């Protein structure tokens, strides 16, 4: 049985983004309310070589993870209307953590206009779409301090 956690050579060459980060070194927190979408995202990220994953199903769990662990990117798929999720979003913004928003409907980037370091991805997504979106959010200068 093949090892599903390794990236085939053809995948890394086929990516449309140059200078792909070493996914195996990334630390990613995945906070998605839907269990099926969360498991799909976790499996897909593992298939891309990311082994340092933390899963959360609520804003409270995600907020705790963000405040207690280092992370390079955050995958958000929670109901953003509650006060706990607003605290989470504020913490992500303060720490300048790039956010990949997964949504099955409206764009949460439009719903949360204050997000300055976010990329959105529609559900359902395939491995290539997730990899490309993660590359876009990581390649930008999201983690650089503002030049003020």
For the structure shown, list the relevant keywords.
alpha/beta; disordered C terminus; 5-stranded parallel sheet; disordered N terminus; Rossmann fold
Q: Given the structure, what is the number of helices?
A: 6
Report the portion of residues in β strands: 15-25%
Spatial strand arrangement across the major sheet: 2-1-3-4-5
The backbone outline, from C-alpha atoms, is globular
Structural class: alpha/beta
CATH architecture: 3-Layer(aba) Sandwich
Terminal CA distance? 54 Å
User: What is the name of the CATH superfamily?
Assistant: Response regulator
Listing every helix as H and every strand as E from the N terminus to the C terminus, the arrangement reads HEHEHEHEHEH
Helical proportion, percent range: 25-40%
Taking the sheet with the most strands, its summary is: 5 strands, parallel
The total count of strands amounts to 5
Low-confidence regions: 1-20, 142-148
Tally of separate domains: 1
Return Rg in Å: 15 Å
CATH topology assignment: Rossmann fold
What is the level 1 CATH name? Answer: Alpha Beta
How would you describe what is shown here?
The structure is a single chain. The chain is α/β, with parallel strands linked by helices. It has a five-stranded parallel sheet with strand order 2-1-3-4-5, with helices on both faces. The longest helix has 13 residues. It is globular. It starts with 8 loop residues before the first helix and ends in a 9-residue tail after the last helix.
């Amino acid at each position: 049985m093949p090892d599903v956690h390794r990236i085939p050579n053809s995948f890394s060459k086929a990516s449309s983004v140059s200078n792909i980060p070493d996914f195996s070194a990334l630390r990613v927190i995945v906070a998605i309310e839907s269990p099926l979408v969360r498991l799909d995202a976790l499996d897909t990220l593992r298939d891309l070589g990311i082994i340092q994953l933390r899963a959360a199903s609520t804003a409270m769990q995600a907020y705790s993870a963000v405040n207690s662990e280092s992370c390079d990117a955050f995958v958000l798929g929670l109901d953003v209307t509650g006060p706990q999720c607003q605290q989470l979003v504020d913490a992500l913004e303060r720490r300048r953590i790039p956010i990949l928003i997964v949504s099955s409907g409206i764009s949460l980037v439009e719903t949360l206009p204050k997000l300055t370091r976010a990329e959105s991805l529609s559900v359902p997504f395939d491995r290539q779409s997730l990899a490309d979106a993660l590359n876009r959010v990581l390649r930008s200068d999201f983690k650089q301090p503002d030049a003020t």
